[in-house]
Amino acid sequence: MSTIVLFEYPLNEKMRTWLRVEFLMNQLQEIVPLSNTANALNFFRLISELLDIFERGDIRTELLKELERQQQKLRAWADVPGVDMTLVEVLRDKLKAQSSQLMNAPRMGQQLREDRLIGLVRQRLSIPGGCCSFDLPSLYIWLHQPQEIRDKQVSAWLDTLAPLYSSLAIILDLIRQSGAFRNQTSLNGFYQDNAEGADLLRLQLQLNDSLYPQVSGHKNRYAIRFMPFDSDRGEVPARLNFQLACC
């Protein structure tokens, strides 16, 4: 059985930012504990990239707006016959609690920006090899601290991101569940359709097809062109079956 590969494409700038933040946050979760220098430097690079994103816009305000929008959608379900209102109320309470937690949290990334070690490392990351021991002796001594001390520090750093991470997780989960996968067929490697105000496209392809999608679009319309992974010898079939969810 062929492996299924999932691709996601944002249809607006808000979703583009959220997927990038999720991508970075998931990597942070994967590389802890920081047991070696390579892991530690990757951790600081990910933190630095997150802070760069936070500085470009007010991500907390956008998340709070989306949490409210999702609550409104759930309220609309109350008028639909046969809906499990117990589940709806549980979700609404979860969204309300998440909104309160996010609203009461400090400014996104502020505690990380003010951390002396993170600040020192961020200044050197753009320099090739700029985090050597002679450049950053403070990082070098930190890397030689006992593992439990470093674990405690890393945990404290990640805890400052918890309100953001949990809010983003529930929002993206609800958005992804809002669109069901349906079988579609592209002709000569091309497919297009209306987006109908959606936020996210999700495509499932067979790994054996050795194809990847190039997507262009916005909230009203999108187009998908399928490209061969091997650009020299690969071929795109005249008819390609794939699964698509518009969320």
Explain this structure to me?
The structure is a single chain. It is globular and about 60 Å long. The model has no long low-confidence stretch (mean pLDDT 91). The two termini are 27 Å apart. The chain has nine helices and seven strands, in the order E-H-H-H-H-H-H-H-H-H-E-E-E-E-E-E. Helix 1 packs antiparallel against helix 2 (37-56), helix 3 packs antiparallel against helix 4 (85-104) and helix 4 (85-104) runs antiparallel to helix 9 (162-177). 19% of the residues are buried. Helices cover 51% and strands 19% of the residues. It is of the alpha+beta class. The strands form two sheets. The protein has a four-stranded antiparallel sheet. A three-stranded antiparallel sheet has the order 3-6-5, with no helix packed on it.
Strands in their spatial order, largest beta sheet: 1-4-7-2
SS-based structural class? alpha+beta
Based on Cα principal axes, name the global outline.
Answer: globular
Sheet having the most strands: 4 strands, antiparallel
**Would you report the number of β strands?**
7
Uncertain spans: none
Secondary structure: helix percent: 40-55%
* Elements, N to C (H/E): EHHHHHHHHHEEEEEE
Query: What is the CA-based Rg, rounded?
Result: 22 Å
Percent strand: 15-25%
- Report the mean per-residue pLDDT as an integer: 91
Number of helices: 9
C-alpha termini separation: 27 Å
List descriptors.
single chain, 247 residues, alpha+beta, four-stranded antiparallel beta sheet, three-stranded antiparallel beta sheet, 7 strands
